[in-house]
Structure formats: structure tokens, C-alpha cells
Amino acid sequence: MLHQVQAGIITTAQGPTTNHNCSPTASRFHSNPDILGEICEYLSSNDDLEELDSAQVAEGRQNLAWLALTCKAFLEPALDRLWRSLNTLYPLFKILPAFIQTDGTHVLRGTITPEDWDRFDWYARRVKKFCYTRDPDNLDIAMHVYFRMAQLRTSPILPSLRHLYCPEISQQDFLISGITSVEDKLSGTFLHTLWNDGAQLDTIIFKGSGLSPGTLDLILNFQSLRSLELTGMGPAMELDWLKKIGAMPKLDDLALDFTHSRIEVVEEDLGFKDLKSLMVTAPLSFTRSILPYLATPSLETIVSVSCSDSQNDRTKFVEEVVERWGSTLRSFSLVHLMSADNIEDIQMVTLAPLIPIKSLTGFRLEGYSFDLTDDNIRILGSAWPNLTKLLLPFLGSERVRPSVESLRILKELCPKLVHLRLPLDTSELPAFVPPPIGGPRTAPPPEEAGTGAASSSSSSSSSSSSAAAAAAVEEDTDAVMAEDSGQSSSPSSSTSPAPSVPPNPPPTSAPFNQHRPPFHLRIRPPFVFL
């Protein structure tokens, strides 16, 4: 029977045994535990916990391991000395088949059976001394291994421990062994555990960075998956993996970020025969290269997010999407990740192929600059009467923007609209006035009530024409603040007593009333702005 010695662990096909059995007529020598103990003590090294990594200690342990294999009588006393002192839990972890190495880091994945725990305990019960220190730099054990062990164990890991030694270590060394990609290993173990326990995941979302190809491969185990979103995992995504994802039978919602991906171009079929929703974060030219190789005939939602594109790419992208999925498309989004020095212009004619799609319920355009008029809004509203979401980009004052009249247009043409983001030119609206400083306004004295009412009425009349020009603004002037340097601006109020002024106005600044715009209107927009 073949035997191996791995860091003091005796491995055979049938568990820990020896390769020579002492006969029933063994000498007193083999049956005397004191003699055997003295021999093992002679071979064992010094138990100085700060010198457990020395060459002398390694030689002594190797001798004890060989001695345990010579005869059954030596097995127990030799292993007792061999495992008596440890300065890392790594030798114990190696006993468990679920303790494996992936991408240079040791992780704990899979089911640990009762038989595995019995074998673990057969060695762990021999540990009497433990030096609590940092593992060497060449030994990378994921932190979640310790957490997982604590979760799975119902009894102490080292039940016979008598001496615990903690040298001078920093807080960073607390059970951590030069950890790299903690989140990756923890995520991988989490996915593996869910799959091993039979979980039928419907949705997986990972946002961040650092997942390895090995962890992404674990996603393939969940064949019932319907929705997958990966953001920041571009370096780990490979073409073969993408094709395997495309073969998943129930996947219909996919969002992938190809930023820094090693996939440069796609020139072969990817699958995704039942895909309904697709979001791709990549240069628009790359996104266009993917479209011909998608097998789905009924894409309903498409979102393209890019940091670099061109007018030609945008035009071709819209045309290709409409030509391929115009009959099924329900939502279209084109997003440009702009920066201060990277603002792209887009022409409204680029969107022309989308106009005939009457079934469109969602449209989003973001990160682009262009001129937008009330007539453009009327065209969009007439083309897409079933819109529930319309999100248009912010436009600076240097661009043409629709007026408030566009709100009335959308209200009439798109009665189902729920979410709206619309840049507006509000220059023709009366200015707004902040609430007065110093608390609520008090009622005027009885003798001034009539005069004050006349002033309010007159100013309300003067503002009626401006309020009528604002289509979505209700024509009610809540309070008239046409005060300038303590005097009313309306002719009818010229004989009215001046409003009361605080006895000691601040000497260092101009009176507050001098900075007030002439009207204060209450706006009640008919839509929800996001």
C-alpha cells in the first residue's frame, strides 16, 4: 500500500495507517509507551514557538513523520510529537478536500463531510501549543477561510490547546496572510457554496472590480439564471466565457461592462437566443460588432454606454438596431460618458430611424449636446404616444432649449408619461422670490388692510400677462413682492404707506428688498422630474 507524508499528514487510500504491522508477539520494547515516548522526544525538535520555522525543526518533523510510518506502535506517539506545536493552521486546513488553491490563493469551497471532519479532528486533537502570528508571504490564505471554519465548526478547532503564544504583531496581522483579492475569493466561495447547496439563483449582480476568470466561471453553474449584471469585470471576461454565458437556457437580461476587456472584436456567434434586454458598456464600435452575433429575434430593451464614439457610429448603431429589432423594441438608451473636455454633439437626424416605432415606451439620451426646440418635442411626442419614460440630457444656456410650452405638448401627446427629464428655457418666466427672512409675515393693521389689498390686486393684474405666457404655470400669484427700496412699484400703490422696516437694518449690506425680483409665483408642474 502506497503511503505519503505531507507536512506530517499520513495519506493512504484507507486513511491513516502504517506500512508495517507489529506481530501479536511484539517485544516489550514496542509495547512500552514510555520507551516509545522517549524515542519520539529525542527525535522531536525544541518546542520554542519562535523557532518553528527553522531547518532543525523541519528535519525533526520529517523524522517523526517517517517514524510514524515504520510501525503501528510508533504511530500515535510520533504523531503526538509531530503535531504538538503549530505556528499556522495551514497544515490542518490541508487535510480538508474542500481547501483548494485558485489563482495562487487558498480558499475553502465545497461540502465538508463528517468523514472529513473526523480526519481533521484526528490530527487537531494533538495540537497543544499554537503560535499566533502572520503566515509567510508565500502562503496566501483567503480571509474568508477562517470565517467559514468558524461558521461550520460546532466544536473548537484545537480542543486540546494548552498554550497560546502571541508575539509582537500589528493589528493587520490578525489571522491575515498577505491577502490578495479578498472580495474575489469570498465571492467565489459564496457562489460555490450556493451552487453546492442547490440554490436556483434568478439574478446575479457584481459591481466593482477584481473578480478573476475562475470566479466568473462559477456563474455558469446556475443554469436557471435569468438576469446577469457585471460592472468593472472587463479584464476577467474572455470570449469563450461569453459564449458559455450565451448558451445559458433562461438568460433574458444581460448587462456587461467591457471596459479594459481583452476582447477586441467579436466575429463569431455568441448565442443569447432568448435575450430581451441588453446593456453594453464599451466603445460604440465594439457594441456594434456584437449585434450581428446575437441570436435573439425579439430584443426589447437596448442600452449603449460609451466613452468614445463618432457621429458615424451613432448613426449606424441606431439604424442597425431598428433594422434588426424594430418590431420588438420597447426601450432605447444611448449614453455618452462625457468629461469636461469630451462633450459630443449629436444631430436630431441621427434618431430619425426610431421615429416610426410607435410601440416605444422608453427613450433615454444622455451625455450629448444638441439644439432642442418645442417642435422637436412635438415630433417625439407624436411619434411615441405610449412613452412612460423620457430622459433627455442637460443642455447649457448656449444651446437652444424647449420652452415651458413643451410640458403642455407632452401632457397632451404622451398621457402615460411618468418619468421625465427635460432641459427647459425658463428665461421668459417671471423670476422667483425666496421666502422672507425673519419669520412669517404678519397681517397689516386694520387701517392699512384696504390699502394693502389694493396693492396686491394691482400687482396681481400687472403679472397676469407674464403668468399667461407660462404654459405649465398656474395663473395664481401667491404674494406680490414688488417692493423696491421700501416703495411699491405699482402706480396704484404710490399713495400707500410704506411697509414697516426693522429699526436697525444691517449697515454693511444693501436692503434685502432691493434684490427681490418683482413676482413670486407658485409652480405646480404636471410631471415628475428626475
TrEMBL record:
<feature type="region of interest" description="Disordered">
    <location>
        <begin position="429"/>
        <end position="525"/>
    </location>
</feature>
<feature type="compositionally biased region" description="Pro residues">
    <location>
        <begin position="499"/>
        <end position="509"/>
    </location>
</feature>
<dbReference type="InterPro" id="IPR032675">
    <property type="entry name" value="LRR_dom_sf"/>
</dbReference>
<feature type="compositionally biased region" description="Low complexity">
    <location>
        <begin position="448"/>
        <end position="472"/>
    </location>
</feature>
<feature type="compositionally biased region" description="Low complexity">
    <location>
        <begin position="488"/>
        <end position="498"/>
    </location>
</feature>
<feature type="compositionally biased region" description="Pro residues">
    <location>
        <begin position="432"/>
        <end position="447"/>
    </location>
</feature>
<protein>
    <recommendedName>
        <fullName>F-box domain-containing protein</fullName>
    </recommendedName>
</protein>
